[in-house]
Each structure stands twice: as structure tokens, then as C-alpha cells.
């Protein structure tokens, strides 16, 4: 699968503002980025740093008056479609050190509150089958409603309200996985099938010694996602973080499959 | 400063339980650990892994019926006492990649809610002086009350209730620092001066290119703290995490200064 | 059914404290109180006022050093056991004015968050049958765990954690009822069958033009409950509210059935 | 002071919906309503009931497709401007029964969390002077920002974020008053000076045996407010409550002073 991606952001700024941008498809063994261009206009203090877990990069910018960003790239996805439902949970004492942070509670994923629910609903099944059952449960019980959540909505809110957007689905999926002691993180990316098209967020679950993308919205497939970055939850994968006041003028994402 | 440390934990377990232990003083350039012994009784599946940011180690255990842990060590602290109040904030585009996660909101530190408060109260001062003013503000306005918080208490709760224990002080300190775009994490450790003596938690703030311990409780000094580990907040530095039911029988910590 | 009730409270007070006490069985057409005695010791400023909705009374006291309260009474319960499951929901425009407050969200019952859940799970059934299905759902999915909740636990927390004590069961029951536009309040009382014996709290639902007791814990029956008072949630029916610091020494409740 | 008031509401409805409307100026000794007209279009099941505390009325409606409401009235305000800052707090055992509910925590006013703050900041002053100091503190530390809060924002959120709209100012004012054991409720109304003009909400505090309007936004004066209704917080005084899906098309309020 080859994806042709473009993203355009335009923001009005008052005073000079420090910004962190994380919108580029990551260079990974499983996804090869070609023809990538990034134009950040007249901003200064451009600095690239490695993003979380060494997946992708973040860019610092200092900007005045206006931010105009245009990014485009072609990404060849070579992710092998593994059926994670058949994979075992890694015994806890065999978990790699770098996965441990993804067992812990985070800003939007208060997983310890879900121990009883997870034991009651999914206590009989293990590993990838359990993750699959959780994913199906979310897709069955939730409704995708644009605008139904905001920057304060955590997995507990979404679980009760039973609706949300992609980040809420990802938060609930991650929360349930962690509540059964399986490492889980969120991934930002560009994906085919997202309706309305925008940046996408999905869960990634550590099973059988590797990370596997799990999209509880049912909108996308593993092979159609170009990863940008990973984190504990939405607090880590914002495509644009402003350390000051900004106002959105335009935000447009396109993702197309090319031969 | 040389500290003689011991910790004893005894827990009753029902079924076999996976446990993660993080109670050993970390081996660091600034603190030299000698005569360390750790006895974990009859537990199995003992596995050591690096802890967060490579500071200290975590230990996996699988245990039945009872957990009896005894740890003792002598730690020579060679931390230079720097007056962080005179240090500058690192410009954002110069921040090392590994500090970025400590700008983000976390489970117990919803820092974005404090932007107005921080701008109003501390907007006129910068860098280390700002951190010092925040620390003093917390010490002045808060009361240390044993048992006044629980595992759900976040920095927002503590800020409103104006009381808490060491972890709550650390959470508020970290939250205010992040709300002014200064990286901040929490540190678990053994410290002289903690009353009643127990594991301690303090904030650590990134100023002038290095991390500096800041204890808003006023109970301890930088030079009297033996670090165990670091994390975004209390969710990352628990001394004992049980993946199953456990019941505390005994927990005792002693810290003494030796010549 | 005739109940013999006694309650003993002993508290240590520091400074003089204003207290509100609400522990007497209410005099109601459906429950006749006899041989009632209330001893409040040396407290002053004793003042009796009508409690919420005119059901029962509240007592103001000003006390120093110690509060010793002893209450005993015999209450004949003449509540007709109606099967509320067969009753209709009152059309909204026919609801009496005094029931409207019990449709609204309250401190522990944020009912608007449950609109989707209630529509999904109970959307096909109406009136008393819906309330019965909700009650059964709670009893099936929740576990009664002493000490599993505290003064901050609201119905949203309990719903996610799926456990609690009587007040949490009552809060969830009330919340689900309000989320389907049926007035619901909480009732404090003395009841046979409460294990461990203590003050009890249950939901009361407005169906077919009258209030009906609904106990989602399954521990008590309508005919075995002597009501003390009613309110929107636990914030209104506390048996003892102190406007200052107090410390419990003893609290003992006995309820026996007598011929 | 005589106010000429008008309010126009237009909403699109999907299915038939039960609605509760509370937009009419209340008939009270202190405010005389003249020339009032209310047009609710083609809705059915019109039923008027007394609103909370017998202040004003609520109207039930069942509507299809569209709701078009127009209300206009002239209200002569004869409220004596008393300086509440000089009034004493009523001793608790002298509080009328009907004020007690306004001491308790409510949906948006979790007052018990503010006991320490209130004792620290306002512990030295009493009664009306304390209420005045609280009002001034809020006005000084808060910024009025349209759109900065939503239906989930409670007084704790507003206190931390230090901004909000009229209902948030009222919630914080009420919360601080209750935290010092002074009964406090919220009042909806039409008021001169509200910018942008809309329905207004202010606190009402029980001092010296009577209720006194206290507007922490500083936008309005007691004599310029025509009360609609009262309640524990915003959960009780919504001008329109829909028991089903609705979508706002237009909402316009005008308030003018006439000779």
C-alpha cells in the first residue's frame, strides 16, 4: 500500500509563540517515506528532535503573527498484517523495559478504575483474543459522533457516555488493555478510510513481543496507516502544541492510495 | 552526606500475583550505593529491568501467599547543592528530546488547567526564580496532613484543598512548572527529615540544562535525598505495584545519616 | 412489620462545633413511630426543623468536647408492597411541581452523562419495567464491597468501578432513572437485612403518581425499611453533619423485627 | 427601576420532544410584572407548575419539528438596595428549614473541598463582610471569557482555571459561601448591564434573615435584576431543558430600562 499524504495548517498568532509540530510520517522499517516536503513559512528557531520511543520527530518553531505549514509525502506501507487475535500476552517478567510506562495510568487513561469491569467482561479470555473482544465490545457499544468530546474528555467519560471520536476510541481501548496488564499506547497517523478525513489516532497493543495497531472505530486497517508518532495518550501526540494563544484558520488533511 | 537506608515490606497475597518492585537506591554519578542487599524471599520470576529514563531499576516478581522484602544499603550522596533560583529556563528549541514528555499533562498533573493561575501569580518572574516562587507559594499555602489524600487525588484536587502529603506537594509543584513550559518530573527516594519516615517523593525541575530537586514540603534538602527512580508523576514511581489483590501487613522505612 | 431500632453515636470534638443530626425515623402515614427517645447529652442550641420535602426532621446542636447521642424507637411499617414493575411512568406534563428537582443532576448523580447508556440498554422498555430492569442490571453487575468508596465517589465512578456500598447503589439507581426522565431521590433509613448493620440508603422512584422504594443491593424489602429522610443524593441525607472537626469514637445501629 | 424585557428562542426538533421552559420573570413582592406575554407556538401539553422555592413558574411543553418561543414583559423592580456587607450571619440553629438545602454540596458546587481555602483566606471576617470579601476576591482573580466553560464545568474547575461566564462566577460565589456555612443559591434572571446581553445568573446569599443578590462579575446591580427562578446551581435554573435532541437556531434576549 502506498499513501499520498498532504496536510495544511494555518493559524493566526497574537504575540510570538513557541510551537511544537509533530505531523510528519515517521521513517520506520515498516513504512518508507519518499518525496517528503515540509514548509513552515517564516518561523524561526527551527529545531528537530527525536519523538517518543524514537518513533518520528518533533519540530520546535518560534512564530509571529501567522503559522502556515504545508506537508506532503508519499509513504509505502510494508506492515505485515498479522492477526493479533491469535497472539499470546507476554508474561510480565519478560516485558521489555521500554514497555512498562505503557502499563501505567496516564492523563486520559485511568486504567485502574476498570479492573472490575475488565475482569467481569473479559476475564475468561487471554492475550490477543481478549484484545480482540475488547475492540469488538467498543465498536458495538460506542457511536462515533464528531464534536462529542473535548480536550478534557478522558476514557472514563467516554466509557460512560459511549460515544466519541477516534482519540476517545483509542483511549478506551488503551485503558482496557492496561487494566488487564497488557502494555498499550496511542499512535497518531494518516489513514485511509477516516471519515471526515483528519489526523487519526488508534491504539497500539503489545502482544507476542511486538506492537500491533488496533482501531476500535473500525474505520481503518493496519496496512493503511502511516504512523506519525506514539505516546501514552493524546497528551503526547498532539500534531500542534502552542505555548501561547493561537487561533485556527484552516486545517486540511488528505490521504489517497496510489499505485 | 552518607545515608544508611533500610526498608521492610510485608504483604499477604491471596492468589499468585505478579508484582513490580522499585525500592532500591539508583546507582548514579551523584550517589554511590554500597553494601546494598535485597531479599525478596521465596518469590519467583525475578527479573530486573531498567527504570524510567535509565535511572534505577525495576524488579518483577511472582509471589504466592506472602511477600517479604527487606532492602538495606549505604548511599554516599555527592550532589552539589546548586541554588536553582539563579538558573535560567532553557529556551524551548534547545530542550533535549528526552525532556519533552515532562512538559506534557499526565495522570496526576493536568497542567493546562493552570495556565491562567501561573500567568497571574508568577508571570513577572522567569526561570529558577519562578520555580522558587512557586515552591514558596506551595509551602506557604499548603498544610501537610497525613492521610488527607488517596490514589485518586490529583494536583487539581490538592490545589483546591490546599493540603496533602509529599506526593501531592510534588504533583502541584510539577504541575505549576509544566504550566509555565518548564520540564518537571517526580522523583521517589529515601530522605533525611521526612516525618513520619516513609518513602518520599519530590519534584525535579529542568533548569539551566540539568535536573534539580525541589521539595515544596520543606522537609528535605537536595543533599539528603537518595533517589530511587523518576517518572511523570506518582503513576510511574510506585515502590510496589501488584497485578492482583494484596494486603499490607507491615511497611517500615528508616533513613539515618552516618559519618 | 414492626421494627425495634436503636442508634448510638459517640464523637470527640475539639472546639465547639455546630452539628446537624438526622437520625430519627420519620412520622409518616405509612410508618407509625412509638416509644421514641432521643438523648443528645449536654449539647446546647437544640433546634428542630422540618427536613427535605417535609419528611422527618433535622436537629441542630452546638456541642463541646464530646457528642454522645442515643436514639431508640419502635416503628410499625404499614407500607403496602406494590409491584412497581407494573406501574406506568407519569407523563412529564403531569408531574407534580415538587418532583421536578428530582429530575435534575445533583452532586453525586450526573445523570445527563448516562443518556446514551440508558437509551441503548433500556430503551425498549418503559415505566416500572424499565426501573426494574435497571435495578436488576445494577445488582447483577455490581459487587457490594465495604470501604470501596468514599465521600467523593459519585455515580459515574461507581458505574465504572462496578462496586460500592448502599449509597453507591442508590446513586447509580437514581442516576439511571433520572437519565430516563423519571424522578428519583435517595432515602436514608433503618432496614432489616443490612449486612453489616448500619444506616441504610436506597433509591426512591416516582412511578404511577407515588414514590416507591427500590433497593438495588437486594438486601432489603420495602416493608422492612423505616425512613429517616429523603434528598437528591447523599449530600442531603447525612445522619450527622459537622461544621468543624470531629472524630468518630463509636457508631452502632441495631434493627430488629418484633411481633 | 422598570425593565422592558424580551426573549426569543427558536429551536429545531427532530422527534416530538418534552421540554421544560423557565423564562418568565417571577411575580414577587419585590418585582411587579406587567404586560407579560408568552407565545409558545403550536406546542401541546402546556402545563404550568410552581418552580423551586415557589419563586416563579416552570412550563411543560410537548413540541414537534420546531420550537418558537417569544416572551416579553415589563417588570418594575422595587428591591431595596441593602448593603449586605454589614449584615450578620444567621446562627445555624436559627436558620429556617427551607435554607438548609442551600448549605449542602450540589452538582456544580462541591463546597466541602474549599473548607481550607475559605478558612485561610477569609477566616478572620464574618457574615456579610466575609461574603463581600469573597465577591471581591472572585472579581479580582477571575476573567470573564465567553465560551470558556461548558455544561461540565463546576466551581472547582472554574476556581483553578480562574475564568468563566456568569454561571461560573455564581457557582464559585455560592461554593465559597456554603464552605463557610452560609446558605447560598443561584438565581436566573434578566439584568441590565450584561455584556453580551443574555440570560444572566447570579448568586443569592442568606444574610441577616433574608436573601441578597451578589454578582461577582460586577456587571449588574441588585436593583437592575428581574428574577426568573432560583436553585441550588445551574442544574435547577436552565431556561430550557429538552428531554430529547434539539438544535438551537436563534436565541435573543433584550433588557432595557424604561421610565
Please give the largest β-sheet of chain A.
Answer: 4 strands, antiparallel
CATH overall fold name of the largest domain in chain A: C8orf32 fold
- Range of strand content of chain A: 35-45%
- Counting structural domains of chain A, the number is 2
Number of extended strands of chain A: 14
- The DSSP helix count of chain A reads 4
CATH architecture annotation name of the largest domain in chain A: Roll
* Main interface by residue count: A-B, 35 and 35 residues
State the distance separating the first and last CA atoms of chain A. Answer: 8 Å
What is the 3D shape of chain A? globular
The helix/strand class of chain A is alpha+beta
Q: Identify the strand order in the major beta sheet of chain A.
A: 3-6-1-14
CA gyration radius of chain A, whole angstroms? 18 Å
Oligomer: homotetramer
Give an overview in words.
Four copies of one chain form a homotetramer. The first copy, chain A, is of the alpha+beta class and 259 residues long. Chain A folds into two domains: 97 residues, Immunoglobulin-like (Sandwich); 154 residues, C8orf32 fold, CATH 3.10.620. Chain A has a four-stranded antiparallel β-sheet with strand order 3-6-1-14, with no helix packed on it. In chain A, a hairpin with a 2-residue loop joins strand 10 and strand 11. In chain A, helix 2 runs antiparallel to helix 4 and helix 3 packs across helix 4. Chain A is globular, with a radius of gyration of 18 Å. The termini of chain A are close together.
